Amino acid sequence: MSADPELEAIRQRRMQELMAQRGMGNPQNPEQQQVQEDAKRDAEERRQMMLGQILSSEARERLARIALVKPEKARGVEDVILRAAQMGQIAEKVSEERLISMLEQINNQTTKQTKVTIQRRRSVLDDDD
Predict the structure, then answer these.
(1) 3-state SS assignment for residue 94
(2) Which of 16, 37, 100, 119 has its CA 20 to 30 A from that of 8?
(3) Residue 67's Cα: distance from chain center in Å?
(4) H helix runs in 70-118, sequence order
(5) What residue ranges do the domains of the chain occupy?
(6) Which fold has domain 4-110?
Protein backbone atom coordinates (compact mmCIF):
# COMPACT_ATOMS: atom_id res chain seq x y z
CA MET A 1 0.00 0.00 0.00
CA SER A 2 1.89 3.08 -1.21
CA ALA A 3 0.44 6.36 0.01
CA ASP A 4 3.49 8.61 -0.05
CA PRO A 5 1.97 11.10 -2.56
CA GLU A 6 -1.16 11.22 -0.41
CA LEU A 7 0.88 11.80 2.72
CA GLU A 8 2.77 14.59 0.98
CA ALA A 9 -0.52 16.17 -0.13
CA ILE A 10 -1.77 16.05 3.45
CA ARG A 11 1.44 17.67 4.70
CA GLN A 12 1.24 20.43 2.09
CA ARG A 13 -2.41 21.07 2.93
CA ARG A 14 -1.60 21.29 6.65
CA MET A 15 1.30 23.65 5.96
CA GLN A 16 -1.00 25.89 3.91
CA GLU A 17 -3.58 25.86 6.71
CA LEU A 18 -0.96 26.88 9.27
CA MET A 19 0.32 29.66 7.02
CA ALA A 20 -3.23 30.92 6.44
CA GLN A 21 -3.91 30.93 10.19
CA ARG A 22 -0.83 33.05 10.80
CA GLY A 23 -1.81 35.47 8.07
CA MET A 24 1.13 34.50 5.90
CA GLY A 25 -1.00 33.04 3.15
CA ASN A 26 -1.22 34.94 -0.09
CA PRO A 27 -4.63 36.28 -0.95
CA GLN A 28 -6.04 33.87 -3.48
CA ASN A 29 -8.66 34.22 -6.10
CA PRO A 30 -11.79 32.06 -5.84
CA GLU A 31 -10.56 29.69 -8.54
CA GLN A 32 -7.41 28.83 -6.56
CA GLN A 33 -9.49 28.36 -3.42
CA GLN A 34 -11.79 25.99 -5.27
CA VAL A 35 -8.83 23.96 -6.51
CA GLN A 36 -7.45 23.75 -2.97
CA GLU A 37 -10.82 22.71 -1.56
CA ASP A 38 -11.12 20.01 -4.22
CA ALA A 39 -7.64 18.75 -3.36
CA LYS A 40 -8.52 18.67 0.35
CA ARG A 41 -11.72 16.79 -0.36
CA ASP A 42 -9.89 14.27 -2.56
CA ALA A 43 -7.19 13.71 0.06
CA GLU A 44 -9.85 13.20 2.74
CA GLU A 45 -11.72 10.71 0.53
CA ARG A 46 -8.52 8.73 -0.06
CA ARG A 47 -7.80 8.81 3.65
CA GLN A 48 -11.26 7.47 4.50
CA MET A 49 -10.99 4.80 1.81
CA MET A 50 -7.66 3.61 3.23
CA LEU A 51 -9.10 3.55 6.75
CA GLY A 52 -12.04 1.53 5.41
CA GLN A 53 -9.60 -1.07 4.11
CA ILE A 54 -7.59 -1.18 7.32
CA LEU A 55 -10.33 -1.08 9.99
CA SER A 56 -13.11 -3.56 10.65
CA SER A 57 -16.64 -2.14 10.62
CA GLU A 58 -16.86 -2.23 14.45
CA ALA A 59 -13.55 -0.39 14.76
CA ARG A 60 -14.70 2.25 12.25
CA GLU A 61 -17.90 2.76 14.23
CA ARG A 62 -15.95 3.20 17.47
CA LEU A 63 -13.58 5.67 15.82
CA ALA A 64 -16.56 7.59 14.42
CA ARG A 65 -18.06 7.84 17.92
CA ILE A 66 -14.76 9.11 19.27
CA ALA A 67 -14.63 11.69 16.47
CA LEU A 68 -18.00 13.07 17.56
CA VAL A 69 -16.64 13.87 21.01
CA LYS A 70 -12.94 14.51 20.37
CA PRO A 71 -12.22 15.05 16.66
CA GLU A 72 -8.55 15.90 17.24
CA LYS A 73 -7.98 12.68 19.17
CA ALA A 74 -9.72 10.60 16.49
CA ARG A 75 -7.60 12.29 13.82
CA GLY A 76 -4.45 11.45 15.76
CA VAL A 77 -5.48 7.81 16.10
CA GLU A 78 -6.25 7.67 12.37
CA ASP A 79 -2.78 9.08 11.66
CA VAL A 80 -1.15 6.43 13.85
CA ILE A 81 -3.11 3.65 12.15
CA LEU A 82 -2.30 4.92 8.65
CA ARG A 83 1.41 5.28 9.47
CA ALA A 84 1.51 1.75 10.89
CA ALA A 85 -0.19 0.41 7.76
CA GLN A 86 2.23 2.24 5.49
CA MET A 87 5.19 0.78 7.36
CA GLY A 88 3.73 -2.72 7.07
CA GLN A 89 3.06 -3.17 10.78
CA ILE A 90 -0.60 -3.99 10.16
CA ALA A 91 -1.05 -7.27 8.30
CA GLU A 92 -4.79 -7.79 8.86
CA LYS A 93 -7.83 -5.64 9.50
CA VAL A 94 -7.74 -3.84 12.82
CA SER A 95 -10.46 -5.23 15.08
CA GLU A 96 -12.33 -3.21 17.65
CA GLU A 97 -10.36 -4.89 20.45
CA ARG A 98 -7.04 -3.96 18.84
CA LEU A 99 -8.29 -0.40 18.31
CA ILE A 100 -9.22 -0.21 22.00
CA SER A 101 -5.75 -1.39 23.03
CA MET A 102 -4.18 1.18 20.67
CA LEU A 103 -6.38 3.89 22.19
CA GLU A 104 -5.31 2.87 25.69
CA GLN A 105 -1.63 3.01 24.70
CA ILE A 106 -2.06 6.44 23.12
CA ASN A 107 -4.03 7.65 26.12
CA ASN A 108 -1.30 6.47 28.51
CA GLN A 109 1.36 8.24 26.45
CA THR A 110 -0.53 11.52 26.23
CA THR A 111 -2.01 11.70 29.73
CA LYS A 112 -1.23 15.06 31.18
CA GLN A 113 -0.41 15.34 34.83
CA THR A 114 -2.19 18.21 36.51
CA LYS A 115 -0.97 19.79 39.67
CA VAL A 116 -3.04 22.17 41.75
CA THR A 117 -1.25 24.62 43.99
CA ILE A 118 -3.22 26.72 46.42
CA GLN A 119 -1.67 30.00 47.45
CA ARG A 120 -3.47 31.90 50.13
CA ARG A 121 -3.17 35.63 49.99
CA ARG A 122 -2.68 37.54 53.14
CA SER A 123 -4.92 40.44 53.70
CA VAL A 124 -3.63 43.80 54.92
CA LEU A 125 -5.68 43.40 58.10
CA ASP A 126 -4.18 39.97 58.88
CA ASP A 127 -1.29 41.18 61.01
CA ASP A 128 0.26 38.93 63.57
CA ASP A 129 1.04 41.81 65.95
Answers:
(1) strand
(2) 100
(3) 10
(4) 71-86, 96-110
(5) 4-110
(6) Helicase, Ruva Protein; domain 3 (1.10.8)
